[in-house]
Every structure is written in C-alpha cells, then in structure tokens.
C-alpha cells in the first residue's frame, strides 16, 4: 500500500501532538509520509518532532526564529523554513492531506493554500470556516479535495450525515457540555475569574478554548462552522446541553430519525477518523461502558446566561463577514478577560456592540477582506475594553 503524504500545521499544539500519536498508532512511516511539520514559538519541540518523525521540512511561522530552527535541525536532513511563505510552501508540497491545527487567524492563509492545491483538509482550526466559510468551501470544491472536520462535534455530524439523504435532512443538533458554569446564576457568572472559567468538566484543552467553552463562545463558533461545512440554513443548526459529553452531536431526518455519534471524550477518535477517512482506523482509546455510564442528560441551552449562542444566530442570519467580526471582537474580549480587564459577561457585550457597528460588511471576495474585517473588529473591541 502506498503511503499518504501529510503535513501537520500546528504540530506542537494539543491537536498536533495527538495527530502524531494517532499517526504512530496507524503504522507511522509505513502508512504516512510527513512532508512538513509547522509551529511558531516552540522551536525545540518542533525540531525534535520533525527529526523523530522523519518530516522532510519544519516551518516556524515566526521569521525571527528561523536561525534557531536551522541550528536545531543542523545535520538532521530536515529542511528549515519560516514565515507565511514557509507555511504556504508546506501547503503546496503535493500533500494528500493537511492537518489544519494552527490556532487563530494565522491558520487561514496556509490552509486556504492547501485546499486550493487539492489536499484533503483535516480541519481543527475554527477560524477558517467561522471567518471565511464561503472562501474555504469554494477553495475545497475547486481544489478537488475533501474537508474532514476534526472538531469532535463536526466530526460526529460528518460521521452520521447521509449526503444521499440531503433532501430528508432536517437539522443538526450540536451537543454542549454546558461547561463549568452550567448551573451558575447570572449574578454568580458576573464575578467569575479566568482560573475558574478554564476548568472544563470533561475535556482537557488549552486556556483560550476552555474559557470559550465556559462562555459558550466555542459553541457559537461551532454553530457557524456547521452551517458552512454542511451547507445548512441557520434554522437547521440547533444546540442542546448534554453534560456528559458522550454524544458528540446528532443529525435529525424528515422521518423523525435522529442519528448520533457517541464516544469517550478523546480528540484522537476524531483525528483518527479524519486521517483514515473513508475507512475507520483501529485506535487504542477508551471504549464506552454503557452500564457504568447509566444515564445521559439533556437540557435546553439558556441564551440569557450564555448570550454567545444568540450572537451566533445573529452572525448566521446576517451572513457576510459577521463571523469574522464576531471572532475578532471575541478574541480581544477573551484576552481582556484573561488579563482581568473585563468581566466574564462583558465578553459578549463587547462582541455584540462591535457586531452591531459592523453589520453592514458584505461577503468577502478574498482573504484580505476577511483580515480587514478581523482587524477592524479587533480595533473596535480594544477601544471598548479601554473605554
Ligand atoms: P494549541 O494552542 O495547543 O496549538 C496551536 C498550534 O499553533 C501550535 O503548534 C502553535 O505553535 C501554533 N501557532 C501558534 N501561533 C501561531 C501563529 N501565529 N502562526 C502559526 N502557528 C501558530 O491549540 P490546539 O491544538 O488546542 O488547537 C488548534 C486549533 O484546533 C484551534 O483553532 C482550536 O480552536 C481547534 N480545536 C482544538 C481542540 C482541542 O481539543 N485542543 C478541539 C477542537 C478544535 P507553538 O507551539 O510553537 O506556539
């Protein structure tokens, strides 16, 4: 069997490290040929992983760290590269697949480049679809690859989405754990700090995504992503709180059937599914024991305590660049919250004010429109935080 050429964007992060683990579980170099690994500040880890896993190239997004990377790779045979041009070079290495796991808007250009070049995209980065959904869907269609979601909710939907039954599709139901403040009152939520907000009950993730889960901004991003990825109308995207995080999401059809994907909360299942698609891999992850689980609970989401969900609907209804605006403003508010410069509930207030001020922005014609909307949203949110 021929090996699959794969590049891992964001190889030093949580998803990147799990991807390398899954690649080893699936046969390592006998199954995958690593064309490139990319990172940013964490040069030592990037170089070590590139050498250990036999990557052809290692790229740091930070040009000032090129020399450090070159030194760390000296004598290894791995080619060093840096900056956006280095990332885009990695995107064009005749890849069969690219794992898109760079965090933030920095992931947009190289992922778009890889999609246009025809690679299958295993998509973890949220900004690609939230900020630039139509551009990505077009690039994938034109490039001829497939976009396979890695976010556990979208992977779940993808796994039970019957494309040949699209006319009978009624809705997708995205599950949300409810985060650490599921049962807190609005008044209590007003006073929580970043240390409390980062304590996710089920998933082990980075600081920002954990706080986004607590505010449900993460769910808001997922709603927008799902709309673009599966070609849905805003009304077809629902959210249900499911505290155990065992059902990762569902799809409802016109005959009343609901198909769900279940599993232990472990990102390696979704990563493995994307890497082995259209097959299913053998993975050593925890198996569900239903007798031990005993029960699965559900609650309607509360848009008063979690206004991010309402803002997602506003962004989906308005369309255009509202996803980019929501995300840019939210990022600034999130950083302000982490630094103790704004309250937990203020994050949504800031985001909503910025969205209302930029509601006139139309569809992006190219990626520069997305960056311009993102920058303007960040500028306005920063002014609100300072004010
Ligand atoms: P991490 O913060 O753990 O890793 C981010 C990766 O991106 C690292 O390799 C980092 O390099 C690199 N990076 C950081 N800044 C830049 C930049 N400016 N330019 C290029 N690369 C950069 O994130 P995660 O792995 O947790 O998440 C990756 C993406 O996947 C995010 O968009 C996240 O929302 C999404 N996601 C994550 C999930 C999870 O369970 N973790 C679940 C679903 C989606 P370095 O280490 O050198 O700084």
Q: Describe it for me?
A:
The structure is a single chain. With 387 residues, the protein is of the alpha/beta class. It folds into 2 domains: 4-150, Rossmann fold (3-Layer(aba) Sandwich); 165-259 and 301-386, Orthogonal Bundle (Rna Polymerase Sigma Factor, Chain: A). It is built from 17 helices and 11 strands. Strands 4-3-2-1-5-6-7 form a 7-stranded parallel beta sheet, with helices on both faces. Helix 1 (14-25) links the parallel strand 1 (4-9) and strand 2. Helix 15 (322-338) runs antiparallel to helix 16. The N and C termini lie far apart (61 Å). The model has no long low-confidence stretch (mean pLDDT 96). Bound molecules: NADPH dihydro-nicotinamide-adenine-dinucleotide phosphate (NDP). NADPH dihydro-nicotinamide-adenine-dinucleotide phosphate binds at residues 10-16, 39-42, 61, 101-103, 106, 124-126, 151, 205-206, 209, 267. The site of NADPH dihydro-nicotinamide-adenine-dinucleotide phosphate (NDP) has 24 residues, from helix 1.
Summarize the structure.
The chain is of the alpha/beta class and 387 residues long. It has helices spanning 14-25, 43-52, 66-73, 83-91, 108-116, 127-143, 152-160, 186-190, 194-197, 207-215, 217-229, 267-276, 290-293, 308-318, 322-338, 346-357, 367-386, and strands at 4-9, 32-39, 57-60, 79-82, 97-100, 120-123, 147-149, 169-176, 237-241, 247-253, 258-262.
């Amino acid at each position: 069997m021929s090996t699959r050429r794969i590049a891992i964007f964001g190889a030093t992060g949580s998803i990147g490290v799990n991807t390398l683990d899954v690649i080893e579980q699936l046969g390592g170099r006998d199954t995958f040929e690593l064309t490139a690994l990319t990172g940013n500040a964490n040069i030592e880890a990037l170089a070590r992983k590139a050498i250990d896993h036999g990557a052809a190239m290692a790229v740091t997004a930070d040009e000032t760290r090129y020399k450090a990377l070159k030194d760390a790779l000296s004598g290894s045979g791995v080619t060093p590269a840096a900056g956006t041009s280095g990332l885009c070079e990695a995107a064009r290495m005749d890849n069969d697949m690219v794992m898109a796991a760079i965090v933030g808007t920095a992931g947009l250009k190289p992922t778009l480049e890889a999609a246009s070049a025809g690679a299958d995209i295993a998509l973890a980065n949220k900004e690609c679809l939230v900020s630039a959904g139509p551009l990505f869907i077009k690039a994938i269609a034109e490039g001829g690859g497939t976009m396979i979601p890695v976010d556990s909710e979208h992977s779940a939907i993808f796994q039970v989405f019957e494309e040949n039954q699209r006319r009978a599709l009624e809705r997708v139901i995205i599950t949300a754990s409810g985060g650490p403040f599921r049962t807190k009152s609005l008044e209590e939520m007003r006073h929580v700090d970043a240390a409390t907000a980062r304590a996710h009950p089920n998933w082990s993730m980075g600081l920002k995504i954990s706080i986004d889960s607590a505010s449900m901004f993460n769910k808001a991003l997922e709603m927008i992503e799902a709309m673009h990825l599966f070609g849905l109308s805003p009304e077809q995207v629902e959210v249900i709180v499911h505290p155990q995080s065992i059902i990762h999401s569902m799809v409802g059809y016109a005959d009343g059937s609901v198909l769900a994907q279940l599993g232990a909360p472990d990102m390696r299942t979704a990563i493995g599914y994307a890497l082995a698609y259209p097959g299913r891999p053998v993975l050593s992850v925890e198996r569900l024991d239903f007798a031990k689980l005993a029960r699965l609970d559900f609650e309607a989401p509360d848009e008063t305590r979690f206004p991010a969900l309402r803002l997602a609907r506003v962004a989906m209804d308005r369309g255009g660049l509202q996803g980019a605006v929501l995300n840019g403003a939210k990022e600034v508010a999130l950083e302000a919250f982490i630094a103790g410069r704004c309250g937990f509930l203020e994050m949504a207030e800031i985001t909503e004010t910025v969205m209302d001020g930029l509601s006139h922005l139309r569809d992006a014609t190219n990626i520069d429109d997305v960056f311009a909307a993102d920058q303007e949203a960040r500028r306005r949110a920063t002014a609100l935080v300072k004010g």
